[in-house]
Write a structure and sequence with these properties.
Elements: H1 2-13, E1 19-29, E2 39-42, E3 47-49, E4 55-62, E5 64-71, E6 78-84, E7 89-91, E8 94-97, H2 125-129, E9 141-143, E10 165-168, E11 171-172, E12 191-197, E13 212-217, E14 226-231, E15 235-245, E16 248-257, H3 260-266, E17 272-286, E18 289-303, E19 313-329, E20 332-349, E21 354-373, E22 376-395, E23 401-421, E24 427-438, E25 444-455, E26 461-464
Parallel strand pairs: 1-7, 1-8, 10-13
Antiparallel strand pairs: 1-4, 2-3, 2-5, 5-6, 9-23, 10-11, 12-13, 14-15, 15-16, 16-17, 17-18, 18-19, 19-20, 20-21, 21-22, 22-23, 23-24, 24-25, 25-26
Length: 465
């Protein structure tokens, strides 16, 4: 009776000799760069995705001859026969030939209604001019067609089409998140704080249906000058900060994506460009009062054609600047912000030799008051916002002849009151009311806000907003 049981236990403890493993890397040909998120699968069963370094590992692969298939969405698939050793591991490094995806063309079709563009305009231009006007109650927009969003002409990741509000030291930034994703959207060392609201944002903010992101840059160093610079295969960056005079400091920083090394590896022009710069000046005025100026510029472009010597880049850029004065008044903290923002986009069409341009400008004035009353923090203030938009089309075959132009302008002003209550325990309650008056009519649009947050633990919170 004990002999069969012992034999069964020995068989179960014996090492399994019917399985092996496959590991290796996947690279892109001809550049030789690691290929991330490629699929490596054994046709008899089992698959894995490559990591950011192109590496992968497949375990519990049946021993013996196996067919391995490697594929990625923009590369040619490859199949190879391997012999997997029992209780062993085989190394398989492969390269996949780059194969760009061919997409069907997108053609613009004119509706033939409501536009003032010439009947002889290049195809697609009339369709762009026929966007419905943003006017009437609730929009506060005046003027002709064209819309108030930079996305009307060029859809950019993070642009106004996202229905978000991103503030950098109080200045709205239309498209703050660059498309390439090759470097951080903002250099982390330049920021002193960031507040993200995915819902139930405080009544202080006059927008952001998708989300509100309030970014604050850090003050310049007041003791001594310091800085640094760096470069890698993708980008260069530099920053410096220090005192100008007693109570005043300056911070400057800049970055650029070059892609020079990747261009040499691929043997083709690098298809992307990006650069930005930031400066901040702080001046202490005494008695807990201060003045701060922040300026931010960036430019981005994507190549849409490889024909040399032609303006074949989709280009867009941002500019934002703010002047903030902080001072105490009657037991409260006051902050007055004046800000200007601009967004420009150029959409060239190399085939038809025409170009569409969009320029958005925004001026903003805000007065914000904050007062602490025990466990209650009370905020109230007023904000005024004025926006301008211009969309136009140019025919570059005849000396940049103007085909169409649309101007749009609008304004909104709003009062708000907001309270943040922190009772004893793990609860935070925030509520407020905002009233906005648009240029389209003499009425107030009221927006109540309420959010309740429960601190479940040190790593989790629950918010109802």
């Amino acid at each position: 009776m004990l002999a069969p049981l012992a034999a069964l236990l020995l068989a179960a403890a014996a090492p399994d000799t019917t399985w092996g493993a496959i590991r290796g890397t996947v690279a892109s040909d001809p550049g030789g760069l690691p290929l991330a998120s490629a699929v490596v699968e054994v046709l008899s069963g089992g698959r894995a995705l490559t990591d950011s370094a192109g590496g992968y590992r497949l375990t519990r692969v049946p021993a013996g001859p196996q067919t391995v298939r490697v594929h990625s969405i923009d590369h040619e698939a490859l199949e190879v026969e391997v012999l997997v050793p029992a209780r062993g591991e085989i190394e398989l490094d492969v390269s996949l030939r780059h194969r760009p995806l061919m997409l069907d063309p997108v053609n613009g079709v004119s509706s033939g209604q409501g536009g003032t563009a010439s009947d002889a305009a290049p195809r697609g231009v009339a369709a762009i001019t026929d966007f419905p006007a943003l006017e009437g109650p609730g929009t506060g927009m005046e003027g002709g067609a064209g819309g108030g969003s930079g996305g009307d002409v060029l859809l950019v990741r993070g642009s106004a089409a996202d229905l978000k509000l991103v503030l950098l030291d109080g200045a709205p930034v239309y498209a703050p998140f660059h498309m390439g994703g090759l470097i951080d959207s903002f250099e982390p060392g330049l920021l002193s704080g960031a507040r993200l609201y995915l819902g139930g944002a405080p009544a202080r903010y006059d927008g952001g249906v998708s989300y509100v992101l309030d970014l604050a840059t850090r003050r310049a160093g007041a003791d001594r000058w310091s800085g640094g610079a760096g470069a890698d295969m993708m980008a260069v960056r530099a920053e410096a900060d220090g005192p100008l005079w007693r109570g005043a400091g300056l911070l400057v920083a800049g970055r650029a994506v070059h892609g020079a090394s990747l261009g040499r590896l691929e043997g083709e022009p690098f298809p992307y460009r990006y650069a930005d710069g930031l400066a901040r000046l702080d001046v202490a005025l005494g008695a807990r009062s201060s003045l701060a100026f922040t300026g931010f510029l960036n430019g981005e472009g994507v190549r849409v054609d490889t024909v040399s010597g032609r303006d074949d880049f989709l280009r867009w850029s941002n500019g934002a600047g703010s002047l903030r004065l902080r001072f105490p008044v009657a037991g409260s903290r006051a902050e007055v912000t004046a800000a200007l923002s601009e967004f420009d986009a150029w959409l060239p069409n190399p085939a038809d030799e025409w170009q569409v341009q969009a320029r958005l400008r925004r001026a903003r004035l805000a007065v914000d008051m904050t007062q602490d009353l025990g466990s209650l923090r009370l905020g109230y203030g007023y904000q005024y916002d004025r926006q301008w938009a211009r969309h136009k089309g140019l025919d570059r075959r005849v000396g940049e002849r103007l085909w169409f132009m649309r101007d749009t302008v609008g304004s909104v002003g709003g009062w708000y009151v907001d309270g943040l209550y922190r009772p004893k325990g793990d609860w935070v309650v925030r509520g407020g009311l905002r009233g906005d008056m648009y240029a389209g009519g003499p009425f107030l649009s009221f927006s109540p806000r309420l959010a309740v947050t429960w601190l479940l633990s040190g790593r989790a919170t629950l918010t109802l907003a």
